[in-house]
Design a protein that fits this description.
- The protein is an all-alpha fold.
- Helix content is 26%, strand content 2%.
- It has 5 helices and 2 strands; from the N terminus they run H-H-H-E-E-H-H.
- A hairpin with an 8-residue loop joins strand 1 and strand 2.
- The structure holds a DNA duplex.
- It comes from Brevundimonas vitisensis.
Amino acid sequence: MLNQSLTEGVVNLGWTEDRVGALKKLWLEGQSASQIAKQLGGGVTRNAVIGKVHRLGLSGRAAPSQPARTNFRPARPRPAQAPVMAQPSAPRRIEAAQPRPAVPVVHEPAPAPDLPGTATVLTLGAHMCKWPIGDPSSTEFSFCGRRASEGVYCVEHARVAYQPQVRRGAKDGASELARSLRRYI
DNA sequence: CCCTGATTCGC
DNA sequence: GCGAATCAGG
């Protein structure tokens, strides 16, 4: 069998129509540049993907993972490799953002305050339980939201929050505490 | 420190 | 045209 695996590993396939098509598809699906780069393979980096996306004019999609930065970056103060003189008659103009269809802002419906973990920082009222649910850095983060009775927590969470003290000296008190806390994590 | 996209500019 | 380097930000 002849060697047909010379192209294995890191290879620089160009932007064939196939790959460009895949890029468009994945990008429009909302995949991040790094994810796309990973799937395309061929040693393409996320920078390459982003660069291609811009060249294709695909930038600014419906569901960007994160809002792009708002500040304009002044210039790139890079340690110049060669002291080439600047072009006097070809100043780079600051291109204003191209007019794009305004992105409709979707408002979430008010969550039911009955179920724990449905109150967001926006909907959390004064008398709602402020026990955190989930990872605070996640978009899924929320608060318990039930009626607060003991301080800022509901009855159930107040018991956890205001545990007076661990009975030291008790047999295996630590694991007992851990067990009691486990259901709240 | 992880990640995101944006931009510049040497190649 | 390409993409590394760099930036700004979550």
